[in-house]
Design a protein that fits this description.
elongated, 6 helices, mainly alpha, 136 residues, 82% helix
Amino acid sequence: IYRFFSDGFVASSDIDALNEYQQGLGDTLLTLTGFENLMIFIYIALIITTIVLLFRKRKLAKTFALVSLIFVSIYGIVDYSVASYVFNSSGLSQSTEIQSFLTKYSSDVGRSLIIASIWIPYFIVSKRVKATLTKE
């Protein structure tokens, strides 16, 4: 959310500098950032909807929780793969800043996969979830 309301997704001077480095790179990163922000808003909507449904003890909360967990896992993998490809194909992956960013992001993706591997089975087989989420 901070990135969305801060000084734009990517500054125009950054886009120009990246395009000078490699033709179209700045535009590619701008598109990637726009896609990431759209996915963040979708994820936030899923989380808010899930929380509201959980507090109301609706059966549909289980489905939204599962969809949210699966969504963030798949999105993380796809986003990391695309970002790695863009940085590797442009030669920017040799930068220590980019390497540290990709390392941190890969650990975030791994963490989301571990969280999903714990919570998805819980929501599917838990008797407590079934007993709590009772309203249609």
